[in-house]
Amino acid sequence: MSGRSSGIEAAPSPVETGTVDLPARVAPVELVEVGPRDGLQNENRPLPVGTRVELIGRLLDLGVRRLEAVSFVRPDRVPQMVGAEEVMAALPQRDDVTYVGLVLNRRGAVRAVETACDEINVVVPVTDAFAERNQGAPVAALLDEAAGAVEVARGAGRSVSVTLAVAFGCPFSGPVAPERVADVAEAALALGIDELALADTIGVGVPAQVRGLTALVQGDERLRRLRFHFHNTRNTGYANAAAAADLALDVPIALDASIGGFGGCPFAPAATGNIATEDLFYLLRESGVPTTGPADLDLGAAAEVSTWLSEQLDSPVTAQLGRAGDARVRA
């Protein structure tokens, strides 16, 4: 049901009626759309370049302003991401939009900076078991690759972030000791990056871990921005996002989400979709947490994009918003 239909009365939110307390955090949380990359990479049906460009255009129309558009990875490993250069060449260049390109190594960064990518996101797993399966090398070697990727990005005048994969748990080695995450985060921050991201790649995390892992880097003067990437594999993704939004930090916080809840890691068994953009926005809005990129989201229009993408992928929408509708809207 679209919220743009005529004759619909807007119901007040719990925040407006004073039935809930505002969170301690008052700074806006940035929403980062990962649907065009993480949302597609685990789907059985690869989408052609034109369809991927159309998806990004639809997301920009929703107000998305920072999004993972592509990844520069081996086509034989992730065929869904074939044609990254072609996608980037077809996208509109806008001063108010940040296109992120995901890379795994220096070679990927070289490809990325030859396109219109504004930001390079380097993935470094925190366990050797996952690093070997996902990227064919141990963590130490991947940190060296990350250093090379950062150098390439800086040389091309691009911003750069590092995402610590499987920071909340590994599908191959199990629970991850916080000390291990701290060590890899230390190495990543030493590279002089613009943003550090903590990723629950397989959806095992809980809010206590969100707070605990944040404490590992909180107060580090090298931390400029902190981002979180949650999957909802075990129905804890939204609880984790709420916990992250409540963090009282001196640096900006961002949350990844994927339109429709599509996504998953092809190298992590049973890793289902990301938290959904429309469901996350509803959660934050009704909790009184301001957002940017978008600051406001037409949830009906977002649900329509999710339905369209579902048809392109022949895969079901996992977001709940499109089924239940916006609670602020009633006939």
From TrEMBL:
Protein keywords: Lyase, Metal-binding
A Gene Ontology biological process term: ketone body biosynthetic process
Family from the record: Belongs to the HMG-CoA lyase family.
CDD domains: DRE_TIM_HMGL
Ranges for domain Pyruvate carboxyltransferase: 29-303
UniProt xrefs under Gene3D superfamilies: Aldolase class I
Segments for region (Disordered): 1-20
Organism: Nocardioides flavescens
Lineage, uppermost ranks: Bacteria, Bacillati, Actinomycetota, Actinomycetes, Propionibacteriales
Protein name per Swiss-Prot or TrEMBL: Hydroxymethylglutaryl-CoA lyase
Pfam families assigned to the protein according to its UniProt record, in alphabetical order: HMGL-like
EC number: 4.1.3.4
Enzyme kind, highest EC tier: lyase
GO molecular function, one term: metal ion binding
InterPro entries: Aldolase_TIM, HMGL, PYR_CT
